[in-house]
Amino acid sequence: RDVEIDVDDTDKVGGFVGTLYVNRENFAKLLVEEGLASVHAYSAERSGNANELNAAEQKAKEARRGMWHDWDPSKEAAENGDVDGDYAANSNGTNGDAVPTEKKKDYRDVMVTHVEETGKLKLQMIGPGTANLTELMNSFRSFHLNSANNQQLPGPPKAGDFVAAQFTEDGEWYRARIRRNDRDAKQAEVYYIDYGNAETIPYSRLRPLSQPQFSPQKLRPQAVDAVLSFLQLPTASEYLKDAIYFIEEQTAGKQLIANVDHSPSDGPIHVTLIEQSAKSLTASFNADVVSEGLAMVPRKLKAWQRAYDDVLDALRKKEAVAKEERKGMWEYGDLTED
């Protein structure tokens, strides 16, 4: 059949990673709905189709289709360490559920460089990496100011290629990676690997990143994927935009402390962001987002989250106040009611 594809990336052996459309319908969604595939959470989040695919998987589970023919929701909850929020506040992990992991204290100096439309953060870890990045960027700037280095790409770029890209806002050159490529329009979507933002620019503003002193092998990409711990951001677009704007406004240009609460092997790290002068994790930017009614505390908790009882209790109190004052997403009442 004739199909359409969107190429998002390439894997480490050069295979395309992306979305396939049959009759303009996402084929991955069809497979998941029929119980012929399961959702890989990290990949789904990166593609921007997470909500659609997760809903399709839940539909297949409830209909016991395909691979879910003997699906047991209670067994899945136990395996994932998911429990109702009310229980989690009083649980000691001894009733057959997953035992809470130990509360982590892993403080790092960070700066938020970008907030995505989904609410995911891009962080730079302040330290040797950022010092090396500053040195690299000074050399990078000087290199591209030299007219002798005004060399265009030898041909159309491919998804996954590393390039030098001229950022629209300031006209400076940065290390980037090609996400999508439009040969007809002669433009590409680039992802700035050290800062986490992306944009679509013409080929004329791309150059080869073939110089060994600037390569990602010399200095790894400095933008780290992260999400704010213990928060469930709004699904309604208007409130989500308000949440993203608030996070950007509160963190812009500030050197902060991040406690890395959880670092899974296949996804973004979970962090609590606090001011340099803060004395505890309960006085955090995470809590400020909840206080503004721009996020709620999840009703179901993972095993690692249950180790943070004091933090969760403080967040629930702030959520209750935000509900009473009808702030943000609570302006028309309690979203969690039937």
From TrEMBL:
Domain of life (superkingdom): Eukaryota
InterPro entries xref list: SNase_OB-fold_sf, Staphylococal_nuclease_OB-fold, Tudor
Domain TNase-like: 1-70
Record field: compositional bias (Basic and acidic residues): 58-78
All residue ranges annotated as the Tudor domain in the record: 156-216
Region (Disordered): 46-103
SMART domains: SNc, TUDOR
Entry protein name: Probable endonuclease LCL3
Organism from which the protein derives: Cryomyces antarcticus
